[in-house]
Task: structure prediction
Amino acid sequence: MSNQSHDFYQEFEVFSRKSDTAPMQYQFSLLAPNHEIALVMAQENFMRRESVADIWVVKRSDIRKMTQEERETLKRLDNKDYRMTKGYGYLKKKWRKFEQKMLDEKEILSWGGGGKQ
Amino acid sequence: MGLIGMNQLTEEEKYEHFMKRIEAGEKIEADDWMPEEYRMALIKLISMHGISEIMGALPEKEWVPRAPSLRRKLGIMAKVQDEMGHGQLLLRVAEDLIKPLGKTREDLIQDLFSGRLKFHNVFHMPAPSWGDAGLIGWLVDGAAIITQTNMLNASYGPYARALKRICAEEVFHAQHGEAIIMALAEGSEQQREMLQDAINRWWESLLMFFGPDKAERTGSSKQDITIKYKIRTKTNEELRQDFFNKYIPRIKSLGLTVPDETMYYDEEQEKWIYQQPDWNKLKQIMKNQGPKSEERLKLRMTAYETNAWVREALGVKSKAM
Result:
């Protein structure tokens, strides 16, 4: 049958976000003959229940994925304290001495007033 | 591995590196190097799992038009749709594994029709009453949850990710089944009988669902390979015992029985002692000679052929562009 030839279906990768402020999240892949059908399939396959604010489908052939070797070079040494708040945790004790609370991440991100979006 | 390319390694070194990765809990991805034995075991397991989801929707869909209320109809329709969705997910995982072999979804479907690709034993069985519809959700999906959660940490990344989605929905399936059997269990004498009949009818199939404890019973078993490669952790028998531990007390609490009077829990061995099912029946099913094998395969074949024009029509735009 002609439509079952190897080039009829193409691989699409599906991304979606739960709400307007949520990051795009990878969902899974699917087969479809074109972008329009891929979008319909994405909704049917992966978003039957959860709330969803936006869906993207991307042809897999348009994505430059990392190879196994490249992924293996991503492994990090656990020596980046100086870049992270956990490297500065001792300040909590210091501020206590001056009778002040530490302005930690939770505190600072609450300053917008709106709380969780 | 650092910056050393995989292609500079010998086959043995690649294998060693692969085993080190899975022992460290790393996930293998579709395009990564993998031993042939691993690829073939995954293909067999995942294509069977995927096609079983689709074949499994067939006995349940028989109950969509006959559901006893609108709410029950909506519930079972949602479940049938989920099963088809799970089939889509899993076939996708299988397709990426068969791609280097030059095969596609079409080959998987043709393998199903020719009998090379098997589907799960439980889906070769009839579901003659509403009790069966409830029991499939409660105990068949319950058994599936036991085997699938055992693979949530599978070394193959795409399968582990698919199972994560699937298991989350299986929780709904199990509760959907429980809602049906609970209504029957608390219903009239006739409804309780219907439920007990369904248990009696499905018991042997449920035992066989987990596969034989040893290969001699049916002639083959892939459990050693899947454990070696950290696709799963528990043996068939361990999974069956987990199933007994979870469900036997629940069956009994509803005043129902299993059709094995000799079955008991041995405190010393910490396991259930039970009558083996007739494994010859499983061998028959593996040859697509179960009670409903032919009928359901025929249904799938007819749907595939008569709906070919739909697939063709959906693709029209991509051809025009």
